[in-house]
Every structure is written in C-alpha cells, then in structure tokens.
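Retro notes - structure team

What went well: the batch runner handled both jobs without manual restarts.
What didn't: labels got mixed up in the shared folder, which is why I'm recording both outputs here explicitly, each with its sequence directly above its tokens.

Job 1
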Amino acid sequence: MSVLLNFAMFPTDKGDSVSEYVSQVIAHIKDSGLNYKLNPMGTTIEADTMAEALKVVQESYDILAPVSNRIYCSITIDAQKDKGQRMAGKIASIETKIGKVNK
C-alpha cells in the first residue's frame, strides 16, 4: 500500500511569519525516515500504511501544541493498495506526456 498524505500545519496565534514553528515540524518529518517533498503550501509524505502517515500528523501537532493555543491543519490523502513509490511515479507519468516539470 502507498499512502500519499499532503498536509499543512501551523500555529495561527504567532503572527505573520510562522517559519520558526513550521521548521520544527519539517525537521520532524525529515527525521521520520519517510519519503517527503516540501512545497510552498505544505509537505507531502509517502508511507506504507495509513497509521504511519497519520502518526506523523499527530506528532507534528504534538510539537506545536505546547507553544500555541490555536493550530491550523489541512490534509489531503491518496491511498492505493498494491502500489509504491507513487510520489516519484506520479511526477514521472506527467513528464512522459509533457516533458520536464519544475520540482
């Protein structure tokens, strides 16, 4: 199984710039050992199970909860059985049709 989970999470009570807090979440994702890709509006991770993917989201919340009274999170999930390496595969599929894309 391949679970692609894209999420954005940040405190809403820390002013206009929250990169200090978001960087802590990204460092945790980086240390998780999962394949991930940072993008301007969130981060996509690829896990073998739904539980594994959602665990990263919970742990990310746990990082922000002690320093924030309000946390925003949006999540998009695409789970597919009998597949793997879909994060790279989805991009490669488009590139075979239209050529290289910005990564």
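Job 2
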Amino acid sequence: MPRVIPLISAATIAPLVRSLVLAGRNVQTYLDASDLGYWPAVRPEEPIPLLNVVEFLRAVAHVEGPDFPCRALSEASLLDLARFGREILGASSPRSALCRVQTIHPRHCTHEQISIVEGDDFVQIRHQMYWPFEQEALHLIQQYVAMMFLSLLRFTNASAPLISSLEMEPHPEFGFDLVRNFGLSGTEISPATSRVLVLTIPLNVFDHQFRKIARDRSVPRPDQDWPPMRGDGSLTHSGGVVVAAMLKDRPPTIERLARAAGTSVRSLQRDLTGEGTSFSALLDAARKDAALVEICSGTMKLRDIAAAVGFADQATLTRAVRRWTGATPRQLRGSDRPRTRSVSLKP
C-alpha cells in the first residue's frame, strides 16, 4: 500500500496563531521551525501536512506550557476554523452540529475519525487519530479537540457539567493536572483506552438548542468546490498538494516532503516510483500550475514569477512554459486558454 501524506486544513492552527499574536509572540518563528513558513499564504480550507501541524503544536507547548491548547481555545475558535467552523455553527444544537461534522469531516482531515455512540441518557463522542503519535503529541492533540468540543457545547448555555466524563491520553509528566481547571469542573477525567479520546455528554446538553448567535451562521452545504481532502487516495495526490503549498514559501525539496510524510527519503522515493511518478514530476506539476495562473493573470512580472517558482531566471521559465503549453509566457498573457486551479504565489 502506498503511503499517503496525512493532511489537515490550514485553518486548524488559526486559533493557536491568534492566541500567540495577542500575546505578542513571534508566530513566524514557530511556523518556520515546523516547516510551515508558507502557512500565511494558503487559504484556510487548503490542506497542509498534519505532521508539521503537530510539530507546530509541540513547539509552541514547549515554550508556552503544556496546557497551551486549553488556554488558547475559546468560543471564537470555531469561527477561526473558517468554512469548517461556519458550517458547524450553522447547526441548531450540538447533535445537529456533530451530524454536520461527520458529513464534512473528510474535507478537514485525512487521518482523523469522529464517531458518536448514543446511550439512554448520554452521548459519547469518540475521536481517533490514525497515526502513531507519541504520548505528549497525542495528549496535546486530544487537549485541542476536547477544548474545541467544549467551546461548541458552551453555545448552548446549558448547566454544567457540559461533559460528564473525559477519557484522554495523559501528559507524560503532568498527567491531567493542567487541564482540570479549564471548564471541566465536575468532569471525571481518566486515561484513554486504545489512545481514543472519549467525551461523554449528558443527553439534555447534546440536544440543547444553541444561542441565536450560533443558529444564524448557516452556510451552503459542501459541494464540488470543497472536495474531500484525500482526493484519489494516492501518494501522488497528497504529495502534490504539499509540494504546491511549500512552493509558496521556498523551494520544495524531497527532504521536506519526506518530513511531511513521516518517512525517509529512500522510502518516499520508492513509494513514488511505485505510483509511476517522482518528486521531480510533482515539483514540475506544482511549478506549472502556479506559474500558468500568474502568467495568465498578468499581475506579476515574468522574472518575479520565475523566482517565485524556483527557476534560475526568466529564460528558464520561458523554456518550461514552452514545454508545458507550446507557447511563450507573453503569448499566454491575455489568452483564453483554460486556466489551472488557482495557486497564489503571494502571501
């Protein structure tokens, strides 16, 4: 089976970024350290590598404290999730919101599952990551997810406890000590079984109506302009997505792509070869998409486009465009040729 690079929507880290900015922190330092320097240039719904996002979360927590997700997330965090959050807040209750989550979740992450189990007077929300994250990383992920669900439940104005019990991976050093005081008064917290986060919610809370501020935020249902993130399920697809994102920051390399895939360069090359492609082919395709969009838009100088997609000079860009289209960049400008998907090179 070919390895698929885990992806998640760029909006996922927006609540964390907002909290860091408000605290006066240098966010770009954290983004660069986790090889997400291109994050400000991508749209909220666009995919970025999940493993790099977790690296970002860990790097921030090591400086800001292991309870950073609890401190960073609030009711406003759902709106930070852009289209994903607006769709959730278009629901009328936690039950209808979770139904929407299950419908649109394939557009949000490739290696995450959220399921619902209903009892006589309670509902369990189960969250599972399909990647072997080590204990600290999994604790931070589950802390983030639990606080996001708690933020959603707070829109009901229902009486506490909103979560009757919580099963989660303990922090390897602090256990649950640092998360108990963040809206979890009266919540029984215990270690997760099989690394699965489980939130048990009283049925009356789960069916409680949201306040008007939440009910009025409906958006159209997902359609073809918001496709499932996994695409065709191939490494070629996920690798191409990541290379295209990296191109917005600095030249992509196979080492950077292997880091995003959580594998070695040799294994990545072998898996790409197994799908009949290569890193060079992925990079060429990403350069083609990005360059042709900018050439046809006419908003950037050709020499700047060449530099942005990693070509040595304008002449190299011209040769590449001839190879891709049979025309020169100047001939393409203002033409009626079909355009590739929009890929902005500018932050």
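One thing worth noting from job 2: DSSP finds 17 helices and seven strands in the chain.
We'll revisit the folder naming next retro.
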